[in-house]
Structures are given as C-alpha cells and as structure tokens.
Design brief:
Blueprint (H helix, E strand, L loop, with lengths): L12 H7 L1 E4 L7 E4 L1 H4 L2 H15 L6 E5 L3 H12 L2 E7 L7 E8 L2 E8 L8 E9 L3 H11 L5 E9 L14 E7 L1
Helix pairs in contact: 3-4
C-alpha cells in the first residue's frame, strides 16, 4: 500500500490569525475570547507557531522554556525540544507533586495562584516563559515574579497572540523582552 504524503503549507501570520476563532461572552459576558484551539488542530498552524518561536529564540542562549498551564503547555515543549533545552511547567496551585514556590495574582475573573517546583531553575538559567495569549498580562506578570525568585540570568516572555488594546505588555519592566507572534 502506498503512503500518501501530505502537502505542507507554509502559513503566514495573517492566515493563522484568520483561523483563530472569536468566542463572544466567554468565560463571562463582555469578554471576546480568542480560541486558539482552531489553530492548534491545524498542523500547518502548529508548525508555524513552533518555527517562528524557535527562530526568535535560537540565538538567545535559552536554557529552559517554561509553559504556563494550560495552553502554554501546547507549544512550549515543542519549542524546548527544537532548541534542545528543558521544559518546565508552571502549574495552578496544588498540581505539582514536590516542593514548590508559588505566586498569587488577580485575573480578569478572580484570584489565582501558580506554582513551580523549587528545584526547576538555577541562577545560571536563561529562560523563556510562554503562554498562548497576552491580554491584561496578569498571569505572565505573576510568572515573571515567580521566576525572579530564582535569580535567573535573563527572562524572556513569549505569546502566540497579543490583544494590543488591553496593553498587557506595559506591565513588564524594560529588561523583560515581550514577543508576540500575532497582534489583534
């Protein structure tokens, strides 16, 4: 039986942006949710996300890539694999089995706490913290505060999508480089 070779389409940022679904009034009235699952099910979009982030970070000396639960877990491990570096999960409270360091923060719809294993990072690390979307910036700001407790050499942040009108990137100090692949 002959194997069929699936043709690879090289996406553009605009094509990927067009595939991302808008869901009005989710998770509460007045919020327009950017649903990236429509892009995640598309192998060409997934390839584009991974290749773009790998190209952005391959010469920055990254030693670990951290993904924020849960949608940050989709692309971060793929890029970590491509860069041949470790992947570190940043999880919601109570999900990690060993000793943790935690950071609490306010979100658009309530209070939350994130955690990382106490032995996940060291002072020699150069890290990229990844999440799917930058909105108001509260989750990533908490993740940056959490990682700073380890006194790492450098922190980069990355997002697949940034909602520019919400001005989330303004939360970060100038030394924290913010990269987003798609701006809405």
């Amino acid at each position: 039986m002959e194997q069929q070779t699936k043709k690879i389409h090289i996406m553009t940022a605009q094509e990927v942006k067009n595939i991302i679904r808008d869901v009005p009034d989710f998770p509460k009235k007045g919020i327009l949710f950017k649903d990236l699952t429509t892009a995640f099910i598309n192998p060409d979009c997934m390839r584009w996300f991974a290749e773009e982030l790998t190209a952005e970070y391959e010469k920055k000396g990254i030693t670990k890539i951290l993904g924020i639960e849960s949608r940050g877990f989709v692309i971060a491990p793929i890029v970590a694999n491509k860069l041949n570096v470790g992947f570190v999960p940043i999880r919601k409270k109570g999900k990690l089995p060993a000793e943790v360091i935690e950071e609490s923060y306010e979100k658009e719809y309530g209070l939350d706490t994130i955690e990382i294993h106490k032995d996940a990072l060291c002072e020699d690390d150069i890290v990229m913290i990844h999440d799917d979307l930058l909105a108001t910036g509260g989750t990533m700001e908490a993740a940056v505060r959490l990682v700073k407790k380890f006194n790492v050499k450098k922190i980069y942040t990355s997002f697949l999508v940034e909602l520019e009108d919400l001005k989330g990137r303004e939360l970060f100090e100038p030394e924290i480089e913010v990269t987003s692949l798609i701006k809405c």
